[in-house]
Design a protein that fits this description.
The structure is a single chain. Strand 16, helix 12 and strand 17 form a beta-alpha-beta unit. It is globular and about 70 Å long. It contains 17 helices and 24 strands. Helix 2 packs antiparallel against helix 4 and helix 8 packs antiparallel against helix 10. Helix content is 28%, strand content 20%.
């Protein structure tokens, strides 16, 4: 075993290495994952599996500068706008103060179908995102910066400005200005670069206007009813472009076989070129069975592999493998409870409080929610499943946010407290009658399965009348069940879009947040505090507001806090050039364009500024 840290920021692609014949599939990067993309259209992509593919095929106006979470470099734009270069100016009108931000657009860039990129594509990309406003999608980030943090949906814009006023506001939000695109922002300028136009915010990747319209997307006409016409549902296939991507990135789609694999091939006319070392193909296999992934990884049929933490000891010391670990991640997870489960859900069985099911409003009862919170053993989960590479979460704000985190374990594992609340629920009837509930996870996600099994074992130990079943569904069945609110209790997580407490507080605690909205809880007074968090510049006040919101969420027991893990990544030792950025490290997401395969190469690129604690072992 060798343990080392590569203290360099960039790997030189001209390193002389041995392209040994024993490196299989030398021109292809083969990745083994446990779930597949929901959509390949940036407008309604808000999941890691989709983002992992989009990162290779599309691009934003900017990209993060090396070793930074605050500075940016040009990508499809040719300059980073600033006051100093005259590309940011300020004004005010009847709607308030605003910033005008202009991006000169790079010339000579082509989409995968050969169409030239122009400013009209940029205008269309962001106008379309606001018009179609996909349910459960990322468009709230657009409304936040274009109109203010109190705007989270197209409905909010219509309510404030009316139909015609909303259309005017959206059209004025992004306009072509000569060879550039000009953005009019009433919301926080500080969030704009971080949440909408960089290489890690895939909902801001630029799409081809003509190609999109030709294939049935919004035709950029305004004789429509906003909030109804072209409004997207939560399904990935709600977009006519979901399986026909056309970006400007280094790789283009060759084939997507649902449930099996996504195959990308390099785009020969990519504007940054192909000098140096690169792979020609990127294949992501959806392999839900761990034993299959393990065999393929050990045999060299996978270059990068999703390894559930509880199985990593099976690979430690295996010749030809490398693991990267110990690094802080901007992400966490929780177990969410819905106030109103879809009455048609098969997971609530009888649908009544009769011992053979649960009513749809089961988790609207606060004593039920608190009982479930006390019944989750986060310490066991951290030690036995994460093998000590995690700590129990205080709340849904990750520990990396320091003093903004409300540091009190409100729900330590306590079966006596859990029993107390179960006995109080539904006026005492629940304890006497019992209940039956199915807890569901997507097959292949063994970390989710383990967390639900821990909860199952603890709750069933309290009362023989409590029946919980943990079952796995294939992704194709799991996703529609989740989207239609059939899963009353589910485990999910959040990876940072940008580094600010608001990016976690809003989805978990705001009434219109990605998690809280389907949960059906929320409070207007808390929403107002969350809006303050987005713009607050005084650190002490920011921390105070964050504490208030977290305490409200904990008191209401809407979500069961789980663990804050450190990161871990697995690859073959012939993989070179992969590197993480803080925005993708929690999900092990990297640019395939940076990667090549060869024995004896420099290996994984560690950024000592972003990840000072990162370690690498290989055998």
């Amino acid at each position: 075993m060798r343990r080392f840290v590569v203290l360099i920021a960039v790997v030189s692609v001209g390193v002389a290495v041995c392209t040994a014949a024993d490196v299989p599939y030398p021109e292809t990067l083969r990745i083994g994952e446990t779930s597949e993309a929901v959509t390949l259209d940036p407008v309604n992509a808000y999941d890691t599996a989709s983002g992992r593919q989009l990162l290779q095929m599309y691009e934003g106006l900017l990209k993060y500068a090396p070793s930074s979470i605050t500075d940016f470099e040009p990508m499809l734009a040719t300059e980073v706008p600033s006051e100093e270069n005259g590309l940011i100016t300020f004004g005010s009108d009847e709607n308030g103060d605003f910033a005008l931000v202009t991006f000169p657009i790079r010339q000579g860039v082509t989409f995968h179908n050969g169409n030239l990129l122009d400013p009209w594509d940029v205008e269309y990309t962001f106008e379309r995102a606001m018009v179609v406003d996909p349910a459960g999608g990322p468009s709230g980030l657009s409304y936040n910066v274009f109109f203010g943090v109190e705007f989270n949906s197209i409905g909010d814009v219509i309510a404030a400005f009316g139909q015609e006023g909303a259309k005017r506001m959206i059209q004025e939000a992004v306009e072509v200005d000569g060879g550039g695109a000009r953005f009019k922002l009433y919301g926080p300028l500080g969030l704009f670069y971080k949440s909408l136009v960089n290489d890690r915010t895939y909902w801001g990747y630029i799409v081809d206007r003509d190609y999109s319209i030709e294939h049935g997307a919004w035709p950029q006409t305004w004789d429509i009813e906003l909030g109804t016409d072209y409004k997207m549902g939560p399904e990935g296939a709600a977009s006519p472009l979901y399986d026909i991507p056309n970006g400007t990135g280094p790789y283009k789609l060759e084939e997507w076989i649902p449930v099996q694999e996504v195959r990308l091939v390099r785009y020969e006319d990519y504007w940054r070129g192909w000098e140096g070392n690169h792979v020609d193909y990127v294949i992501t296999f959806n392999i839900t069975e761990w034993s299959t992934r393990r065999t393929m990884f050990e045999n060299g049929d996978l270059d990068v592999c999703n390894v559930p933490r509880q199985y990593q000891q099976q690979l430690i010391g295996t010749p030809g493998l490398r693991t990267v670990y110990g690094f802080a991640t901007a992400g966490n997870s929780g177990i969410m409870m819905l106030s109103q489960i879809n009455p048609q859900s098969p997971f609530i069985h009888s649908g009544r409080l009769d011992g053979q099911g649960v009513p749809p409003e089961f988790f609207s009862e606060i004593d039920v929610r608190k009982a479930f919170c006390y019944a989750f053993d986060a310490d066991t989960y951290a030690q036995q499943i994460y093998l000590g590479e995690a700590i129990p979460s205080y709340s849904q704000l990750p520990i990396i946010f320091g003093d903004a985190v409300y540091r009190e374990y409100v729900y330590p594992f306590d079966l006596e407290k859990a029993e107390e609340h179960f006995r109080a629920a539904f006026g005492g009837r629940l304890w006497d009658i019992g209940f039956k509930l199915t807890l569901e996870y997507n097959i292949g996600n063994d970390m989710r399965r383990a967390s639900l099994e821990i909860l199952e074992g603890a709750i069933e130990s309290l009362n023989p009348k409590f029946q919980l079943d943990v079952v796995g569904l294939e992704w194709a069945s799991h996703l529609p069940a989740f989207q239609s609110n059939q899963i009353g209790l589910y485990r999910s997580g959040w990876g940072a879009d940008y580094i600010h407490p608001y990016n976690f507080i809003q989805p978990y605690y705001h009434s219109q947040g990605n998690f809280m909205k389907p949960q059906g809880f929320g409070d207007p007074a808390i929403d107002a505090k969350i809006a303050q968090i987005a713009t607050e510049t005084d650190t002490a006040e920011l921390n105070r507001l964050c504490h208030e919101v977290q305490k409200w969420g904990l008191d209401g027991a809407y979500t069961i806090p789980m663990v804050d893990p450190t990161g871990r990544h697995w690859e073959r030792t012939w993989v070179n050039g992969a590197r993480f950025h803080a925005m993708g490290a929690s999900a092990n997401v990297f640019y395939a364009y940076d990667v090549w395969k060869a024995s004896g190469g420099p290996g994984f690129t560690v950024d000592p500024i972003l990840f000072p604690d990162m370690l690498v072992d290989q055998w």
